[in-house]
UniProtKB/TrEMBL annotation:
GO molecular function terms attached to this record: ATP binding; protein kinase activity
Binding residue positions for ATP: 351
Domain Protein kinase: 323-613
Transmembrane parts of this sequence: 254-277
The protein, known as: Protein kinase domain-containing protein
Signal sequence annotation: 1-27
Organism, scientific name: Arabis alpina (Alpine rock-cress)
Amino acid sequence: MSQSPSSLRCCFFLLFSVFTIVTTSSASPSPSCSSSSSSTFHCPPFNSSPPYPFSTSPGCGHPNFQIQCSLPKATISIKNLSFSLLHYNSLSSSLFLSPILNPNHNNNCSSLRLSHSIDLTGTPFRISDSSCSRLSLLRPCSPLLLPNCSHCPWDCKLLKNPNRILHGCESTHGSSLPEQGCQGDLLSYLQDYFTRFGFEVEWDQSQDPYFIKCKDCNGVCGYNSTHPNQDFLCFPNSRSESLLQREKKRVDHVAVLSLIFALTCLLLAVSVGVAIFRSRRGTFLSSINEEDPAALFLRRHRSSALLPPVFTFEELESATNKFDQKRKIGDGGFGSVYLGQLSDGQLLAVKFLHHHHGATAAATEHCKAFSVKSFCNEILILSSINHPNLVKLHGYCSDPRGLLLVHDYVTNGTLADHLHGRRSKMTWRVRLDIALQIALAMEYLHFAVTPPVVHRDITSSNIFVEKDMRIKVGDFGLSRLMVLSETTMTSASSSDYVCTGPQGTPGYLDPDYHRSFRLTEKSDIYSYGVVLMELMTGMKAVDQRREKRDMALADLFVSKLQMGLIGQVVDPLLTVEDNGGVAAVAELAFRCVAVDKDDRPDAKDIVEELRRIKSRTRGVDDDVANC
Protein backbone atom coordinates (compact mmCIF):
# COMPACT_ATOMS: atom_id res chain seq x y z
CA MET A 1 0.00 0.00 0.00
CA SER A 2 1.49 3.37 -1.10
CA GLN A 3 1.39 6.50 1.03
CA SER A 4 1.47 10.17 0.09
CA PRO A 5 5.07 11.44 0.40
CA SER A 6 3.90 14.97 1.26
CA SER A 7 1.65 13.71 4.05
CA LEU A 8 4.40 11.58 5.52
CA ARG A 9 6.81 14.49 5.37
CA CYS A 10 4.28 16.61 7.25
CA CYS A 11 3.96 14.04 10.03
CA PHE A 12 7.71 13.45 10.34
CA PHE A 13 8.19 17.21 10.53
CA LEU A 14 5.67 17.44 13.37
CA LEU A 15 7.35 14.58 15.23
CA PHE A 16 10.70 16.29 14.81
CA SER A 17 9.18 19.56 16.04
CA VAL A 18 7.85 17.86 19.16
CA PHE A 19 11.27 16.36 19.86
CA THR A 20 12.91 19.75 19.32
CA ILE A 21 10.48 21.53 21.65
CA VAL A 22 11.01 18.97 24.43
CA THR A 23 14.79 18.98 24.16
CA THR A 24 14.93 22.76 23.84
CA SER A 25 12.81 23.27 26.93
CA SER A 26 15.03 20.95 28.94
CA ALA A 27 18.28 22.41 27.63
CA SER A 28 17.52 26.11 27.83
CA PRO A 29 20.62 28.16 28.66
CA SER A 30 20.96 29.20 32.22
CA PRO A 31 20.71 32.93 32.88
CA SER A 32 24.42 33.27 33.49
CA CYS A 33 24.40 36.73 31.90
CA SER A 34 21.58 38.21 33.98
CA SER A 35 21.58 41.97 33.61
CA SER A 36 20.36 42.44 37.16
CA SER A 37 23.54 41.04 38.63
CA SER A 38 25.51 43.92 37.20
CA SER A 39 23.00 46.74 37.51
CA THR A 40 25.26 48.70 39.92
CA PHE A 41 28.50 47.84 38.18
CA HIS A 42 30.44 50.89 36.95
CA CYS A 43 32.94 50.66 34.10
CA PRO A 44 34.29 54.01 32.78
CA PRO A 45 33.55 55.56 30.35
CA PHE A 46 30.13 53.86 30.75
CA ASN A 47 27.83 55.15 33.52
CA SER A 48 26.87 51.59 34.47
CA SER A 49 27.56 48.13 33.05
CA PRO A 50 28.56 48.29 29.38
CA PRO A 51 25.42 48.32 27.15
CA TYR A 52 24.76 46.04 24.21
CA PRO A 53 26.76 45.13 22.15
CA PHE A 54 29.58 45.52 24.70
CA SER A 55 30.17 43.14 27.62
CA THR A 56 32.66 42.48 30.40
CA SER A 57 31.90 38.76 30.91
CA PRO A 58 32.90 35.94 28.53
CA GLY A 59 29.79 34.48 26.88
CA CYS A 60 27.83 37.73 27.21
CA GLY A 61 27.76 39.74 24.03
CA HIS A 62 30.06 39.14 21.08
CA PRO A 63 33.82 38.43 21.36
CA ASN A 64 34.51 41.50 19.18
CA PHE A 65 33.00 43.72 21.91
CA GLN A 66 34.63 42.34 25.07
CA ILE A 67 35.62 45.16 27.47
CA GLN A 68 38.40 44.94 30.05
CA CYS A 69 37.44 47.22 32.92
CA SER A 70 40.38 49.02 34.50
CA LEU A 71 41.14 52.43 35.95
CA PRO A 72 41.17 55.11 34.82
CA LYS A 73 39.82 53.83 31.48
CA ALA A 74 38.49 50.54 30.18
CA THR A 75 40.27 48.86 27.28
CA ILE A 76 39.20 46.90 24.20
CA SER A 77 41.23 44.75 21.81
CA ILE A 78 40.65 45.04 18.05
CA LYS A 79 42.74 43.03 15.60
CA ASN A 80 45.43 42.31 18.23
CA LEU A 81 45.83 46.03 19.04
CA SER A 82 44.72 47.42 22.44
CA PHE A 83 42.84 50.71 22.80
CA SER A 84 41.72 52.82 25.73
CA LEU A 85 38.05 53.87 25.75
CA LEU A 86 38.06 57.66 26.16
CA HIS A 87 34.38 58.38 25.56
CA TYR A 88 31.15 56.58 24.56
CA ASN A 89 28.29 58.25 22.66
CA SER A 90 25.12 56.28 23.50
CA LEU A 91 23.05 58.05 20.81
CA SER A 92 25.25 56.97 17.90
CA SER A 93 26.89 53.92 19.56
CA SER A 94 30.30 55.44 18.74
CA LEU A 95 33.53 55.22 20.74
CA PHE A 96 36.55 57.47 21.06
CA LEU A 97 39.59 55.18 21.17
CA SER A 98 43.21 55.89 22.02
CA PRO A 99 45.82 53.31 20.96
CA ILE A 100 47.83 51.92 23.87
CA LEU A 101 51.41 52.41 22.67
CA ASN A 102 54.41 50.50 23.90
CA PRO A 103 56.39 52.84 26.21
CA ASN A 104 59.55 50.84 25.55
CA HIS A 105 59.20 51.12 21.80
CA ASN A 106 62.61 52.00 20.36
CA ASN A 107 62.18 54.26 17.39
CA ASN A 108 65.42 55.89 16.25
CA CYS A 109 63.55 57.86 13.62
CA SER A 110 61.08 59.89 15.75
CA SER A 111 59.22 60.01 19.04
CA LEU A 112 56.11 58.37 17.49
CA ARG A 113 55.72 54.92 19.01
CA LEU A 114 53.16 53.70 16.43
CA SER A 115 55.08 52.14 13.55
CA HIS A 116 52.10 51.30 11.28
CA SER A 117 48.62 52.56 10.42
CA ILE A 118 45.56 51.62 12.46
CA ASP A 119 43.49 49.28 10.27
CA LEU A 120 39.96 48.23 11.37
CA THR A 121 39.07 46.54 8.08
CA GLY A 122 37.05 43.34 8.55
CA THR A 123 35.72 44.35 11.99
CA PRO A 124 32.30 45.73 13.00
CA PHE A 125 34.01 49.07 13.63
CA ARG A 126 34.35 51.88 11.08
CA ILE A 127 36.50 55.00 11.48
CA SER A 128 34.21 58.04 11.46
CA ASP A 129 34.40 60.68 8.78
CA SER A 130 34.88 63.36 11.41
CA SER A 131 38.15 61.81 12.58
CA CYS A 132 39.44 61.70 9.02
CA SER A 133 38.41 65.35 8.56
CA ARG A 134 40.32 66.44 11.68
CA LEU A 135 43.46 64.68 10.50
CA SER A 136 43.16 66.36 7.12
CA LEU A 137 43.67 69.74 8.85
CA LEU A 138 47.15 68.76 10.08
CA ARG A 139 50.32 69.57 8.14
CA PRO A 140 54.00 70.23 8.91
CA CYS A 141 55.31 73.76 8.68
CA SER A 142 57.34 74.78 5.65
CA PRO A 143 60.00 74.10 4.76
CA LEU A 144 59.29 70.39 5.14
CA LEU A 145 62.37 68.70 6.68
CA LEU A 146 62.18 65.01 5.88
CA PRO A 147 64.31 62.46 7.74
CA ASN A 148 66.32 59.83 5.94
CA CYS A 149 63.44 58.17 4.07
CA SER A 150 65.40 55.00 3.37
CA HIS A 151 65.74 54.38 7.14
CA CYS A 152 62.50 56.01 8.27
CA PRO A 153 59.96 55.42 5.46
CA TRP A 154 56.98 55.46 7.84
CA ASP A 155 57.92 58.89 9.21
CA CYS A 156 58.26 60.30 5.70
CA LYS A 157 54.83 58.98 4.69
CA LEU A 158 53.18 60.52 7.76
CA LEU A 159 54.85 63.90 7.25
CA LYS A 160 53.57 64.00 3.67
CA ASN A 161 50.06 62.80 4.59
CA PRO A 162 49.15 62.48 8.32
CA ASN A 163 45.90 60.72 7.31
CA ARG A 164 47.89 57.55 6.67
CA ILE A 165 47.91 56.86 10.41
CA LEU A 166 44.22 55.77 10.09
CA HIS A 167 43.61 53.23 7.32
CA GLY A 168 40.76 54.44 5.13
CA CYS A 169 41.49 58.16 5.55
CA GLU A 170 44.35 58.30 3.04
CA SER A 171 42.23 59.79 0.26
CA THR A 172 41.70 62.98 2.29
CA HIS A 173 44.63 65.38 2.36
CA GLY A 174 45.27 69.01 3.07
CA SER A 175 47.73 70.04 0.43
CA SER A 176 45.77 73.23 -0.30
CA LEU A 177 45.50 74.37 3.35
CA PRO A 178 47.02 77.72 4.43
CA GLU A 179 50.15 77.98 6.52
CA GLN A 180 48.24 78.78 9.73
CA GLY A 181 47.86 75.82 12.08
CA CYS A 182 50.93 73.96 10.87
CA GLN A 183 52.93 71.89 13.36
CA GLY A 184 56.67 72.19 13.73
CA ASP A 185 57.04 68.67 15.18
CA LEU A 186 54.11 66.94 13.52
CA LEU A 187 55.01 63.42 14.69
CA SER A 188 55.16 64.46 18.35
CA TYR A 189 51.88 66.30 17.90
CA LEU A 190 50.24 63.14 16.51
CA GLN A 191 51.58 61.18 19.49
CA ASP A 192 50.07 63.66 21.95
CA TYR A 193 46.83 64.07 19.96
CA PHE A 194 46.00 60.35 19.88
CA THR A 195 46.89 59.93 23.56
CA ARG A 196 44.61 62.79 24.71
CA PHE A 197 41.76 62.86 22.19
CA GLY A 198 41.97 59.56 20.28
CA PHE A 199 39.81 58.93 17.22
CA GLU A 200 36.12 58.12 16.79
CA VAL A 201 34.86 54.75 15.55
CA GLU A 202 31.27 53.81 14.77
CA TRP A 203 29.60 50.44 15.08
CA ASP A 204 28.65 49.38 11.54
CA GLN A 205 25.66 47.03 11.96
CA SER A 206 25.72 46.14 8.27
CA GLN A 207 29.11 44.46 8.86
CA ASP A 208 27.78 42.53 11.86
CA PRO A 209 24.54 40.77 10.78
CA TYR A 210 24.80 38.36 13.74
CA PHE A 211 23.16 40.86 16.10
CA ILE A 212 20.54 42.37 13.76
CA LYS A 213 17.66 40.64 15.57
CA CYS A 214 19.09 41.20 19.06
CA LYS A 215 16.84 44.22 19.51
CA ASP A 216 13.93 41.76 19.89
CA CYS A 217 15.48 40.42 23.11
CA ASN A 218 13.91 41.72 26.35
CA GLY A 219 16.89 40.58 28.42
CA VAL A 220 20.62 40.47 27.65
CA CYS A 221 22.02 39.35 24.28
CA GLY A 222 24.67 36.66 24.52
CA TYR A 223 27.09 34.98 22.14
CA ASN A 224 26.35 31.33 21.33
CA SER A 225 29.87 29.97 21.85
CA THR A 226 28.71 26.34 21.36
CA HIS A 227 27.21 27.03 17.92
CA PRO A 228 28.73 30.31 16.63
CA ASN A 229 26.87 30.11 13.30
CA GLN A 230 23.45 30.03 14.99
CA ASP A 231 21.44 32.96 16.35
CA PHE A 232 22.39 34.87 19.50
CA LEU A 233 21.20 33.73 22.93
CA CYS A 234 18.72 35.88 24.81
CA PHE A 235 19.39 35.65 28.58
CA PRO A 236 16.41 36.79 30.73
CA ASN A 237 16.72 39.48 33.36
CA SER A 238 15.40 39.19 36.91
CA ARG A 239 11.90 40.29 35.96
CA SER A 240 11.53 37.58 33.31
CA GLU A 241 12.96 34.62 35.25
CA SER A 242 9.59 33.77 36.82
CA LEU A 243 7.97 34.01 33.42
CA LEU A 244 10.56 31.56 32.10
CA GLN A 245 9.55 28.97 34.68
CA ARG A 246 5.89 29.30 33.78
CA GLU A 247 6.80 29.13 30.10
CA LYS A 248 8.64 25.82 30.68
CA LYS A 249 5.52 24.31 32.23
CA ARG A 250 3.43 25.49 29.33
CA VAL A 251 5.91 24.03 26.86
CA ASP A 252 5.64 20.65 28.57
CA HIS A 253 1.87 20.63 28.08
CA VAL A 254 2.25 21.72 24.47
CA ALA A 255 4.76 18.92 23.87
CA VAL A 256 2.31 16.26 25.09
CA LEU A 257 -0.53 17.66 23.01
CA SER A 258 1.72 17.94 19.96
CA LEU A 259 2.79 14.32 20.31
CA ILE A 260 -0.85 13.19 20.38
CA PHE A 261 -1.59 15.36 17.35
CA ALA A 262 1.41 13.96 15.46
CA LEU A 263 0.32 10.36 16.03
CA THR A 264 -3.19 11.24 14.83
CA CYS A 265 -1.72 12.90 11.75
CA LEU A 266 0.34 9.80 11.01
CA LEU A 267 -2.76 7.60 11.05
CA LEU A 268 -4.62 10.03 8.82
CA ALA A 269 -1.67 10.18 6.41
CA VAL A 270 -1.92 6.46 5.75
CA SER A 271 -5.56 6.66 4.70
CA VAL A 272 -5.13 9.92 2.78
CA GLY A 273 -2.05 8.52 1.02
CA VAL A 274 -4.01 5.54 -0.26
CA ALA A 275 -6.75 7.80 -1.60
CA ILE A 276 -4.29 10.16 -3.32
CA PHE A 277 -2.37 7.28 -4.87
CA ARG A 278 -5.53 5.77 -6.35
CA SER A 279 -6.65 9.17 -7.66
CA ARG A 280 -3.30 9.96 -9.30
CA ARG A 281 -3.07 6.50 -10.78
CA GLY A 282 -6.46 6.97 -12.43
CA THR A 283 -5.51 10.45 -13.69
CA PHE A 284 -2.24 9.15 -15.13
CA LEU A 285 -3.92 6.26 -16.94
CA SER A 286 -6.55 8.58 -18.40
CA SER A 287 -3.90 11.13 -19.51
CA ILE A 288 -2.10 8.46 -21.52
CA ASN A 289 -5.06 8.21 -23.86
CA GLU A 290 -5.70 12.00 -23.91
CA GLU A 291 -4.46 13.74 -27.04
CA ASP A 292 -2.29 16.84 -26.79
CA PRO A 293 -4.37 20.09 -26.96
CA ALA A 294 -2.07 21.62 -29.59
CA ALA A 295 -2.53 18.59 -31.85
CA LEU A 296 -6.32 18.82 -31.45
CA PHE A 297 -6.25 22.54 -32.29
CA LEU A 298 -4.16 21.96 -35.42
CA ARG A 299 -6.42 19.13 -36.58
CA ARG A 300 -9.52 21.30 -36.24
CA HIS A 301 -7.99 24.13 -38.30
CA ARG A 302 -6.18 22.21 -41.02
CA SER A 303 -6.19 18.82 -42.61
CA SER A 304 -3.51 16.64 -41.01
CA ALA A 305 -2.23 15.77 -44.49
CA LEU A 306 -1.02 19.38 -44.92
CA LEU A 307 0.72 19.62 -41.55
CA PRO A 308 4.52 19.21 -41.36
CA PRO A 309 6.10 16.08 -39.81
CA VAL A 310 5.88 15.56 -36.05
CA PHE A 311 9.09 14.97 -34.07
CA THR A 312 9.24 13.33 -30.66
CA PHE A 313 10.66 15.28 -27.74
CA GLU A 314 13.42 12.68 -27.37
CA GLU A 315 14.48 13.13 -31.00
CA LEU A 316 14.93 16.89 -30.64
CA GLU A 317 16.49 16.56 -27.20
CA SER A 318 19.10 14.23 -28.67
CA ALA A 319 19.60 16.47 -31.72
CA THR A 320 20.41 19.48 -29.50
CA ASN A 321 22.48 17.52 -26.94
CA LYS A 322 19.76 18.03 -24.31
CA PHE A 323 19.36 21.70 -25.29
CA ASP A 324 22.96 22.48 -24.47
CA GLN A 325 23.58 26.20 -23.87
CA LYS A 326 26.65 25.95 -26.09
CA ARG A 327 24.29 25.17 -28.97
CA LYS A 328 22.05 28.18 -28.38
CA ILE A 329 22.17 30.38 -31.49
CA GLY A 330 19.63 33.02 -30.53
CA ASP A 331 16.46 34.06 -28.74
CA GLY A 332 13.24 34.55 -30.66
CA GLY A 333 10.19 36.47 -29.52
CA PHE A 334 8.87 33.55 -27.50
CA GLY A 335 11.67 31.03 -27.26
CA SER A 336 15.33 30.12 -27.41
CA VAL A 337 16.76 28.73 -30.65
CA TYR A 338 19.25 25.84 -30.64
CA LEU A 339 21.33 24.25 -33.39
CA GLY A 340 20.16 20.68 -33.90
CA GLN A 341 21.65 17.83 -35.93
CA LEU A 342 19.27 15.02 -36.88
CA SER A 343 20.30 11.40 -37.09
CA ASP A 344 20.81 11.75 -40.88
CA GLY A 345 23.28 14.63 -40.31
CA GLN A 346 20.94 17.43 -41.40
CA LEU A 347 21.43 20.72 -39.51
CA LEU A 348 18.26 22.51 -38.43
CA ALA A 349 17.23 25.27 -36.01
CA VAL A 350 15.09 24.09 -33.07
CA LYS A 351 13.03 26.77 -31.29
CA PHE A 352 12.02 25.86 -27.73
CA LEU A 353 9.15 28.07 -26.52
CA HIS A 354 9.91 29.69 -23.17
CA HIS A 355 8.79 28.24 -19.85
CA HIS A 356 7.93 30.83 -17.19
CA HIS A 357 9.31 29.55 -13.88
CA GLY A 358 8.43 31.27 -10.62
CA ALA A 359 5.23 32.90 -11.90
CA THR A 360 1.86 32.75 -10.15
CA ALA A 361 -0.61 30.03 -11.09
CA ALA A 362 -2.80 32.48 -13.03
CA ALA A 363 0.20 34.00 -14.85
CA THR A 364 1.55 30.53 -15.67
CA GLU A 365 -1.76 29.45 -17.19
CA HIS A 366 -1.96 32.69 -19.20
CA CYS A 367 1.61 32.31 -20.51
CA LYS A 368 0.99 28.65 -21.34
CA ALA A 369 -2.17 29.48 -23.29
CA PHE A 370 -0.39 32.31 -25.14
CA SER A 371 2.58 30.07 -25.99
CA VAL A 372 0.32 27.34 -27.38
CA LYS A 373 -1.56 29.94 -29.43
CA SER A 374 1.66 31.37 -30.86
CA PHE A 375 2.99 27.86 -31.44
CA CYS A 376 -0.09 26.68 -33.37
CA ASN A 377 -0.31 29.99 -35.25
CA GLU A 378 3.25 29.65 -36.57
CA ILE A 379 2.66 26.03 -37.63
CA LEU A 380 -0.57 26.86 -39.51
CA ILE A 381 0.99 29.79 -41.37
CA LEU A 382 4.36 28.22 -42.23
CA SER A 383 2.77 24.99 -43.40
CA SER A 384 0.74 26.94 -45.98
CA ILE A 385 3.53 29.04 -47.52
CA ASN A 386 6.50 28.28 -49.74
CA HIS A 387 8.87 31.04 -50.87
CA PRO A 388 12.67 31.19 -51.22
CA ASN A 389 12.83 34.27 -48.98
CA LEU A 390 10.76 32.77 -46.15
CA VAL A 391 11.98 30.33 -43.50
CA LYS A 392 10.68 26.81 -44.10
CA LEU A 393 9.09 24.75 -41.32
CA HIS A 394 10.43 21.16 -41.26
CA GLY A 395 8.34 19.88 -38.34
CA TYR A 396 7.18 20.42 -34.81
CA CYS A 397 6.82 18.72 -31.43
CA SER A 398 3.92 19.26 -29.03
CA ASP A 399 4.82 17.64 -25.72
CA PRO A 400 3.97 18.37 -22.06
CA ARG A 401 7.69 18.96 -21.54
CA GLY A 402 7.83 21.69 -24.18
CA LEU A 403 6.61 23.10 -27.50
CA LEU A 404 9.24 22.99 -30.26
CA LEU A 405 9.45 24.18 -33.87
CA VAL A 406 12.03 22.91 -36.38
CA HIS A 407 13.12 25.49 -39.00
CA ASP A 408 15.78 26.02 -41.63
CA TYR A 409 19.20 26.68 -40.11
CA VAL A 410 20.53 29.90 -41.66
CA THR A 411 24.28 29.95 -41.13
CA ASN A 412 25.24 33.62 -41.49
CA GLY A 413 23.40 35.29 -38.61
CA THR A 414 20.72 37.95 -38.82
CA LEU A 415 20.54 41.23 -40.69
CA ALA A 416 20.89 42.99 -37.31
CA ASP A 417 24.21 41.20 -36.80
CA HIS A 418 25.52 42.55 -40.10
CA LEU A 419 24.23 46.10 -39.62
CA HIS A 420 24.93 46.61 -35.90
CA GLY A 421 27.44 43.90 -35.00
CA ARG A 422 30.98 43.07 -36.03
CA ARG A 423 30.10 41.34 -39.28
CA SER A 424 31.66 42.36 -42.58
CA LYS A 425 30.37 45.68 -43.96
CA MET A 426 27.84 45.48 -46.80
CA THR A 427 27.99 47.50 -50.01
CA TRP A 428 25.05 49.57 -51.24
CA ARG A 429 24.29 47.06 -53.99
CA VAL A 430 24.06 44.22 -51.44
CA ARG A 431 21.81 46.29 -49.19
CA LEU A 432 19.56 47.22 -52.08
CA ASP A 433 19.29 43.56 -53.08
CA ILE A 434 18.39 42.59 -49.48
CA ALA A 435 15.69 45.28 -49.42
CA LEU A 436 14.21 43.85 -52.62
CA GLN A 437 14.23 40.28 -51.25
CA ILE A 438 12.38 41.36 -48.10
CA ALA A 439 9.82 43.19 -50.27
CA LEU A 440 9.33 40.07 -52.41
CA ALA A 441 8.64 38.00 -49.27
CA MET A 442 6.09 40.62 -48.14
CA GLU A 443 4.46 40.69 -51.57
CA TYR A 444 4.07 36.90 -51.42
CA LEU A 445 2.46 36.99 -47.95
CA HIS A 446 0.08 39.86 -48.80
CA PHE A 447 -0.98 38.91 -52.35
CA ALA A 448 -0.10 35.28 -53.16
CA VAL A 449 -1.43 33.57 -50.01
CA THR A 450 -5.16 33.11 -49.36
CA PRO A 451 -6.15 34.44 -46.92
CA PRO A 452 -3.34 37.02 -46.78
CA VAL A 453 -0.79 36.85 -43.97
CA VAL A 454 0.39 39.85 -41.92
CA HIS A 455 3.77 39.07 -40.37
CA ARG A 456 3.44 41.74 -37.59
CA ASP A 457 7.12 41.51 -36.59
CA ILE A 458 9.31 42.39 -39.57
CA THR A 459 12.56 43.45 -37.92
CA SER A 460 16.26 43.18 -38.75
CA SER A 461 16.53 40.52 -35.99
CA ASN A 462 13.94 38.31 -37.73
CA ILE A 463 15.65 38.46 -41.14
CA PHE A 464 18.27 35.73 -41.52
CA VAL A 465 21.21 35.95 -43.92
CA GLU A 466 22.67 33.06 -45.93
CA LYS A 467 26.34 32.74 -46.87
CA ASP A 468 25.63 34.15 -50.35
CA MET A 469 23.80 37.12 -48.72
CA ARG A 470 20.40 35.76 -49.69
CA ILE A 471 17.86 36.35 -46.92
CA LYS A 472 14.98 34.49 -45.29
CA VAL A 473 12.27 36.16 -43.18
CA GLY A 474 11.40 34.12 -40.07
CA ASP A 475 9.68 34.13 -36.65
CA PHE A 476 5.98 33.98 -37.50
CA GLY A 477 4.85 33.70 -33.86
CA LEU A 478 2.90 37.01 -34.07
CA SER A 479 1.61 36.58 -37.63
CA ARG A 480 -2.09 36.73 -38.37
CA LEU A 481 -4.24 35.37 -41.20
CA MET A 482 -6.43 38.17 -42.58
CA VAL A 483 -9.72 36.28 -42.10
CA LEU A 484 -12.38 39.01 -42.08
CA SER A 485 -15.40 38.95 -39.79
CA GLU A 486 -18.91 39.94 -40.97
CA THR A 487 -18.57 43.26 -39.14
CA THR A 488 -15.37 44.03 -41.01
CA MET A 489 -16.75 42.94 -44.36
CA THR A 490 -19.76 45.29 -44.04
CA SER A 491 -17.59 48.16 -42.77
CA ALA A 492 -17.28 51.31 -44.81
CA SER A 493 -13.52 51.39 -44.34
CA SER A 494 -11.43 51.77 -47.46
CA SER A 495 -9.21 48.86 -46.48
CA ASP A 496 -9.75 45.49 -44.87
CA TYR A 497 -8.49 44.93 -41.34
CA VAL A 498 -8.56 42.55 -38.41
CA CYS A 499 -9.30 44.02 -34.99
CA THR A 500 -6.67 42.74 -32.55
CA GLY A 501 -4.46 43.99 -29.71
CA PRO A 502 -1.22 45.63 -30.90
CA GLN A 503 1.82 43.38 -30.67
CA GLY A 504 5.29 43.74 -32.12
CA THR A 505 8.78 45.08 -31.46
CA PRO A 506 9.24 48.68 -30.19
CA GLY A 507 10.58 50.92 -32.91
CA TYR A 508 8.93 48.85 -35.66
CA LEU A 509 5.32 48.91 -34.44
CA ASP A 510 2.85 50.76 -36.67
CA PRO A 511 1.54 53.78 -34.67
CA ASP A 512 -1.78 53.70 -36.57
CA TYR A 513 -2.26 50.04 -35.59
CA HIS A 514 -1.23 50.85 -32.01
CA ARG A 515 -3.81 53.66 -31.90
CA SER A 516 -6.78 52.00 -33.64
CA PHE A 517 -6.20 48.26 -32.94
CA ARG A 518 -6.91 47.73 -36.67
CA LEU A 519 -4.36 45.40 -38.24
CA THR A 520 -3.81 45.60 -42.02
CA GLU A 521 -1.04 44.68 -44.44
CA LYS A 522 0.07 48.34 -44.19
CA SER A 523 1.30 47.59 -40.65
CA ASP A 524 4.00 45.36 -42.20
CA ILE A 525 4.81 48.21 -44.60
CA TYR A 526 5.61 50.51 -41.67
CA SER A 527 7.95 47.92 -40.12
CA TYR A 528 9.59 47.40 -43.50
CA GLY A 529 10.17 51.16 -43.79
CA VAL A 530 12.12 51.10 -40.52
CA VAL A 531 14.23 48.18 -41.83
CA LEU A 532 14.96 50.26 -44.97
CA MET A 533 16.20 53.06 -42.70
CA GLU A 534 18.45 50.59 -40.87
CA LEU A 535 19.90 49.43 -44.19
CA MET A 536 20.65 53.02 -45.19
CA THR A 537 22.00 54.31 -41.87
CA GLY A 538 23.43 51.26 -40.09
CA MET A 539 21.65 52.58 -36.95
CA LYS A 540 19.39 50.62 -34.59
CA ALA A 541 15.61 51.05 -34.72
CA VAL A 542 15.64 52.15 -31.06
CA ASP A 543 18.75 53.45 -29.33
CA GLN A 544 18.50 54.90 -25.83
CA ARG A 545 21.90 56.52 -26.24
CA ARG A 546 20.36 59.01 -28.69
CA GLU A 547 18.45 62.09 -27.56
CA LYS A 548 14.86 61.45 -26.49
CA ARG A 549 13.31 62.96 -29.63
CA ASP A 550 15.67 60.90 -31.83
CA MET A 551 15.52 57.66 -29.83
CA ALA A 552 13.28 56.05 -32.48
CA LEU A 553 15.09 55.80 -35.83
CA ALA A 554 11.89 56.60 -37.77
CA ASP A 555 11.57 59.98 -36.00
CA LEU A 556 15.26 60.82 -36.53
CA PHE A 557 15.24 59.76 -40.20
CA VAL A 558 12.05 61.64 -41.14
CA SER A 559 13.25 64.78 -39.35
CA LYS A 560 16.59 64.82 -41.21
CA LEU A 561 14.91 64.08 -44.56
CA GLN A 562 12.43 66.94 -44.17
CA MET A 563 15.25 69.37 -43.33
CA GLY A 564 17.34 68.21 -46.32
CA LEU A 565 20.01 66.79 -44.02
CA ILE A 566 19.64 63.10 -44.88
CA GLY A 567 23.39 62.91 -45.51
CA GLN A 568 23.96 63.29 -41.76
CA VAL A 569 22.39 59.90 -40.99
CA VAL A 570 23.33 57.85 -44.07
CA ASP A 571 26.00 55.23 -43.36
CA PRO A 572 29.38 56.82 -44.31
CA LEU A 573 30.29 53.62 -46.16
CA LEU A 574 27.58 54.37 -48.74
CA THR A 575 28.49 57.93 -49.68
CA VAL A 576 31.17 56.83 -52.13
CA GLU A 577 28.77 54.47 -53.92
CA ASP A 578 25.77 56.82 -53.91
CA ASN A 579 24.56 57.05 -57.52
CA GLY A 580 21.15 58.52 -56.74
CA GLY A 581 19.81 55.25 -55.41
CA VAL A 582 20.24 56.25 -51.77
CA ALA A 583 18.05 59.33 -52.17
CA ALA A 584 15.36 57.33 -53.97
CA VAL A 585 15.30 54.63 -51.30
CA ALA A 586 15.19 57.31 -48.59
CA GLU A 587 12.07 58.76 -50.23
CA LEU A 588 10.53 55.26 -50.38
CA ALA A 589 11.27 54.67 -46.69
CA PHE A 590 9.64 58.03 -45.89
CA ARG A 591 6.46 56.96 -47.67
CA CYS A 592 6.44 53.58 -45.89
CA VAL A 593 6.30 55.19 -42.43
CA ALA A 594 3.57 57.71 -43.30
CA VAL A 595 1.31 58.44 -40.34
CA ASP A 596 -1.85 57.65 -42.35
CA LYS A 597 -1.68 54.02 -43.48
CA ASP A 598 -3.56 54.89 -46.70
CA ASP A 599 -0.61 57.07 -47.76
CA ARG A 600 1.78 54.10 -47.61
CA PRO A 601 2.59 52.03 -50.72
CA ASP A 602 1.68 48.35 -50.80
CA ALA A 603 4.17 45.52 -51.23
CA LYS A 604 3.71 45.39 -55.03
CA ASP A 605 4.47 49.11 -55.37
CA ILE A 606 7.59 48.69 -53.23
CA VAL A 607 8.87 45.80 -55.37
CA GLU A 608 8.35 47.77 -58.59
CA GLU A 609 10.04 50.88 -57.17
CA LEU A 610 13.08 48.95 -55.89
CA ARG A 611 13.48 47.18 -59.23
CA ARG A 612 13.51 50.59 -61.00
CA ILE A 613 16.08 51.95 -58.52
CA LYS A 614 18.19 48.81 -58.90
CA SER A 615 18.14 49.00 -62.71
CA ARG A 616 19.10 52.70 -62.66
CA THR A 617 21.91 51.99 -60.20
CA ARG A 618 23.22 49.17 -62.38
CA GLY A 619 23.08 51.42 -65.46
CA VAL A 620 25.07 54.17 -63.76
CA ASP A 621 27.63 51.65 -62.52
CA ASP A 622 28.04 50.35 -66.11
CA ASP A 623 28.57 53.89 -67.42
CA VAL A 624 31.20 54.54 -64.76
CA ALA A 625 32.93 51.27 -65.62
CA ASN A 626 32.99 52.15 -69.37
CA CYS A 627 34.53 55.55 -68.61
